[in-house]
Design goal:
Elements lengths: L9 E2 L7 H11 L2 E6 L3 E6 L2 H9 L3 E2 L6 H4 L10 H5 L8 H12 L4 H5 L2 H19 L4 E3 H6 L1 H11 L3 H14 L6 H24 L5 H11 L6 H32 L1 H8 L5 H11 L5 E7 L3 E3 L2 E3 L5 E4 H5 L2 H4 L29 H18 L4 E2 L21 E3 L5
Parallel strand pairs: 1-2, 3-9
Antiparallel strand pairs: 2-3, 4-6, 5-11, 6-9, 7-8, 10-11
Length: 413
């Protein structure tokens, strides 16, 4: 790192157990901080808002793993669990014309109008899930809101959007859950990747045989009509991206928003009094407790200055979205405070920035806003059943949330 070689690289905790404490420590070291990934792989995390925004839009930064020097030179350990984040051959790892081609196939179908048209269905699914919370809580009045609400809502929505049969959704959810973890052994990672690829192959075959008005059918048709538009690997990678990104971010967003409101009752009261809206809750949660912590990978095409540090060409770089959301340089000295009336001048980076801005951001916001408003209308006295600090974290430095969300929706009988 040119003028900062004196720094000892920070070894990332694969379990992400101290997300915001670790992020604060990284930000204090600088905008671009040397880190060590699982497997002993050196990398850099870009931790501050302005520098990350510039980095994400820099034309001298690529996503294609052909620019990952250590991977290209064969020094990455065999079976490295994070390899899939680099080598998946879809729009998340493509650049330039390839990226525009792959993204265009999806955006042609996943239009803003189509997403907004899902609102009535999201509202019905939300109401159905809320109807079942009482039964799930039983006599105790306590229910795992993540399991019974935050997970099934986005899984159902993305399942319907992609034309996934209900019987297959649980299977795809299990593989997605596993792949999001950064504590996997090489064997666990390989098994999850194979299982997901096989399941997506079955989904594509089903929609080829029985096409419908869904995104998978549209992608399969694009593949079959013109193999140069979407080849086999790109079809699988695109479906995988849509399945995983289509619900992991949303379920974490809902979970984190409920936790924040329950631990900040004054902020919940501001919403109830009309001084803030549910969309404000969603935006502040995206900033305060972003669903994605550190997202892999991007690669500088040259030795690139980032906030006083030169990141060598070909270094794998992680976008520290959760850290950037709490950067006091961007959000003021109270950046660690949850404030639903905050009106930041800076555009949030929680869904990325530039050409790779999250294609499902509008859908995630829609689902979370509908879900939170309906949840607190139905259960105005909802409260955490255990202190927030005691909730077990997801075993991931990529996904940022908790494993469970036990809440009390009524007094024990």
């Amino acid at each position: 790192m040119s003028d900062r070689t004196d720094r000892t690289p920070h070894r990332l905790d694969p379990a992400g157990a101290r997300r915001h404490e670790d992020d604060a420590g990284l930000r204090a070291q600088g905008a671009a901080v040397p880190v060590v990934l699982p497997g002993g792989v050196p990398a850099v995390a870009v931790t501050r808002h302005e520098e990350l925004k510039e980095f994400l839009a820099d034309p001298d930064v690529a996503k294609d793993a052909c620019h990952f020097t250590a991977l290209r030179e064969g020094v990455i350990p065999d079976g490295w669990p994070l390899t899939i984040f680099a080598t998946l051959e879809g729009m998340t790892t493509a650049d330039g014309a390839d990226h525009r081609r792959l993204r265009g196939v999806v955006t042609k179908v996943l239009t803003p109008a189509r997403i907004e048209g899902l609102r009535p269905r999201v509202e019905r699914l939300t109401a159905e899930l809320l109807d079942g919370l009482g039964t799930a809580a039983g006599a105790s009045g306590v229910v795992d809101l993540r399991r019974h609400f935050a997970v099934p809502l986005p899984v159902s929505v993305i399942g319907e959007l992609l034309g996934v049969p209900p019987a297959m959704r649980g299977e795809l959810r299990r593989f997605s859950y596993t792949m999001a973890r950064t504590t996997l052994t090489p064997e666990e990672s390989a098994a999850a990747n194979r299982g997901m690829a096989e399941a997506l192959g079955r989904l594509a075959a089903l929609r080829r045989a029985e096409p419908g008005d869904d995104l998978t059918s549209a992608l399969v048709a694009a593949h079959d009509e013109d193999g140069t538009t979407l080849d086999d690997r790109e079809l699988t990678a695109t479906l995988l991206t849509l399945v995983v990104a289509g619900h992991e971010t949303t379920l974490a967003l809902i979970t984190n928003a409920v936790r924040a409101l329950c631990t900040h009752p004054d902020q919940l009261e501001l919403v109830r009094s009309g001084k803030a809206g549910w969309a404000d809750v969603v935006e502040e949660t995206l900033r305060y407790d972003a669903p994605v912590g550190l997202f892999p990978f991007r690669y500088p095409l040259r030795d690139l200055p980032v906030g006083g540090t030169v990141v060598p060409r070909g270094t794998p770089v992680l976008a520290a979205y959760a850290s950037a959301g709490r950067d006091e340089r961007a959000y003021g000295p109270d950046a660690d405070r949850f404030d639903v009336t905050r009106r930041p001048a800076n555009r949030l980076l929680s869904f990325g920035h530039g050409a790779h801005y999250c294609i499902g951001a509008q859908l995630a916001r829609l689902e979370a806003t509908v879900a939170l408003e309906a949840l607190f209308a139905r259960h105005p006295d909802l409260a955490l059943a255990v202190p927030d600090r005691e909730l077990p974290r997801l075993s991931s430095f990529i996904s940022n949330s908790t494993e469970v969300l036990p809440v009390r929706i009524f007094a024990p009988r």
